Amino acid sequence: MGNSVGVTHDGRRLWLLSSNEVQHVLYELDEATSTPLRAHPLPALIGAQGTSAHGIVWVDGAIWIAIAGSTNELVQVDPDTGRILRRRSAPTELGPTGLSFDGQHLWLSSTTGHVYRVSTQNGGIEQRFIAGSPEVRSQGVAHRAGEVWVAGLFEQMVVYSSRDGALLGAVTTEGGALLPREDLGQLCFVGDELVVLSQRGLTYYRPERVAE
């Protein structure tokens, strides 16, 4: 399926966005076997050279895709047809790197290390905080019950309060170890399980948070 650059869950099944640098394809997966059930090529997703997709999320029957590079935007796609429904400028200073949804708002991670809470109605920024420092790039974000989980590109996964951006702690496995760099990537929650799309593929965790 090429290089997978985004993962989300619609309440029943996982969806992956794959890129082979020529085209992007949106896949609906059978979770038990990881076999594609449907595949939608998205030839019009990328409109400018030097632009790429980073992160997807399921929102109210549609999939949003974060686009970064020459153009920074959010693209809404019909999962039944692959048709692009809407394009909206991404409110990030540099490119968005991950997407999540809390039931009302989009959450974006970004190249600058900022995390944004964004209105799904008008794309306006409703909250912004720095995950780590401006020099730390984030590569994935997931929201769960008042928490924002952020995977760094070169360092550990950490958790912030979605209310005020306060650092709550680092993410560890059930054995208490920090997630290794090769296990960091795009994120989504399926119930209490954290799904990470990394260079190893899809990995399911029942993670713990170590309080600071």
Describe this structure in words.
InterPro entries: WD40/YVTN_repeat-like_dom_sf (IPR015943). This is SMP-30/Gluconolactonase/LRE-like region domain-containing protein. It comes from Sorangium cellulosum So0157-2. There is one protein chain. The chain is mainly β and 212 residues long. It has one domain: Neuraminidase, CATH 2.120.10. Helices cover 0% and strands 57% of the residues. The protein is built from no helices and 20 strands. It has strands at residues 3-9, 14-19, 24-30, 35-41, 52-59, 62-68, 73-77, 84-89, 96-101, 105-110, 114-119, 125-130, 138-144, 147-152, 157-161, 167-172, 186-190, 193-198, 201-205, 208-211. The strands form 5 sheets. It has a 5-stranded antiparallel beta sheet, with no helix packed on it. A 4-stranded antiparallel beta sheet has the order 1-2-3-4, with no helix packed on it. A hairpin with a 4-residue loop joins β2 and β3 (24-30). The chain is globular, with a radius of gyration of 16 Å. The model has no long low-confidence stretch (mean pLDDT 85).
